[in-house]
Amino acid sequence: MRYNKLLKKMALTKEDYADIQTALSDVHKKTSGRISLAVIAESSSYAFWEMLAAFFSAFGLFACLIPLSSQIYSWLGRTFWGEQPWYLAVFLALVCGTLTIALYFFYNIPALDRIIIPQVARRRIVSNRAMRRFAESGIYRAPKGSGILIFVSYLEREVRIVADKGVSEKVSQDLWNLIADEMSEFLARGQEKEAWLHAVKRCGELLAEHYPPSEDDEPASPQGLVVLEDEKWA
Known about the structure:
By secondary structure, this protein is α/β, with parallel strands linked by helices. Helix content is 60%, strand content 10%. Strands 3-2-1-4 form a 4-stranded mixed β-sheet, sandwiched between helices. α3 runs antiparallel to α5.
């Protein structure tokens, strides 16, 4: 999934982005805690898994063709001039190579990606990307370790809420996971704006309970929902 496709799928208007940013600003007025928002099309290119699936699919075809090798060899002899021992090897190599390449691109379809990539691998990759975004956003600089990141990875259909050390000592991760599950339900129904507004509100309530606002608070960043662009995968 690519950046432009993500924007189209989310279907958020400028007014929607503004409403999300306003909700975030309102929350920051009620707590010294800080919230960062980010969404990405996919947390990895998953090229390894796609190529692996394509290779094994092509190998399966190769195994099916072996019992038919004599018929294929005879057909090649009739199709081309005479019979050469290397005809069969070249034919099988071309068929398997072409199929591997074709299936690699075929397995790039998001719905198929979610099937061929093990769930454990997907979740680990999304968690790692969320942690990386946590560092990139600078939310870790929030006072008293009161920063959290709400992170959505679309291809994997995963939501992560990453809390800094200070927050983790006060709020159980189970509560953040519950909010992530609630947000996932909104997203599953195609309610993009409502999903973000709900998550911001719920997270803000928890932060306000443990991190009330104070006069020493630094102004919150005006940044709202950040849509991360495509990366050039190595």
